[in-house]
Amino acid sequence: MTKEITTYNNITPDQVTLIKSQIAVGATDDELKLFLHVADKSGLDPLSRQIYFIKRSGKMTIQTGIDGFRAVADRTGQYIGSSDAVFEETNNSPIKATVTVNKVVQGVIGNFTATARWSEYYPGKSQGFMWDKMPHTMLGKCAEALALRKAFPSQLSGLYTGDEMAQAGKDGIPNQGRNINPKGGSKQLEESLKVEPTVEAIADGIKTVVLDIPKVEVPSPEDSNKFLETAQSLLDEGFAFCEDKEIHDNIINNLSDIKYETTEANVKVLRKHAKTYPSNQEKFQSVAREHAKRWKKIMLPDHYKHLYEYMNDLNSFFPEEEEQIISLVHEEAA
Length: 334
What we know:
alpha+beta; 7 strands; 16 helices
């Protein structure tokens, strides 16, 4: 039986091989086909980082930045621009943003309007560094992405911006009216930042959430789980920290995966990162030492045990001689 070979208009066979090994790492054959189909159809180049393959908890999503959306719309010859975002605010903070995209349809200018609400898109303190710093810009970009997808469904269906995906849950599915990560998301974040946030700055941004001890002696399961997730996010930032945002995002995605299922591909990527960025060893270990006692106080025993096991998992990616850190953390928490 002859094996069917899929051909693409904008992607060569050699590029397919390169994309599979370098861009869509961990993709199944079907996921790779879908990713290549969307990239080819949209005209966005995976090798130039115009479109991203993201896998969270075993679920694939395809992402780009707002500039990628505009480029796809512009190529149709029907896109004639969009309005500035119109905000509804409370105490100078946006609660919703509305954007209208203008498109020529059979010689007539049509208006396609969409609204993004803060309550549906804000990813929370642990993931909301840029949202806290530039709330209007971030919410406005989500509204524009919604409006562009509404105006150009054939070209943008199934494609999301990193800003929209910031709030994606365990299934990796974004809210339709609603990746890792303070430095993650679209490439436009990089343009917005004159200085990349350090792991210390990110830690400061979520420290109040991590260390806020409940007034009740025993936290509720919901609160305890929230503290667990935030503690894991802080540990992840120490482990994944590097100046290259794309590498950082890839490591955060792999760390997200191992919280649910660890594959050989995850292990290979994380071990390589730990070897390449040995200074992150001290960042991760310092975070664990500093907060161990308080984490134990604000979590239920099962949640703290899970966190302790997660610290062991992270530590296992470093050289064996450093495994003593976990016993030190255990002593700190005692």
